[in-house]
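ok so i was messing around last nite and threw this chain in just to see what happens. nothing serious, just curious
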Amino acid sequence: MSQVSLTFKGVDSAELINRITTALMMVEGVDSAEVGRHGAEVEGRARREALVEAVKKLGVEVQ
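result:
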C-alpha cells in the first residue's frame, strides 16, 4: 500500500471537500482519503493520475 499527496487550489467549502472525498474513494484501489481545504492524503494502490483526474472532474485545480 502506498500514500499519495495531492495539493489543491480553490477548495473553499465543506460541500466541495465532501465531494472530493467521495470522488477519491470511488477510484479503484483507494483504501482511505483524508481531504482538507488545501489537499488530500490518499492511501491504497490507486494511480496518482486517476486520483488527479477524479478531482479535476469536479473543477478543482490540482498542483
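not much to say yet. The first strand starts at residue 2 and ends at 9.
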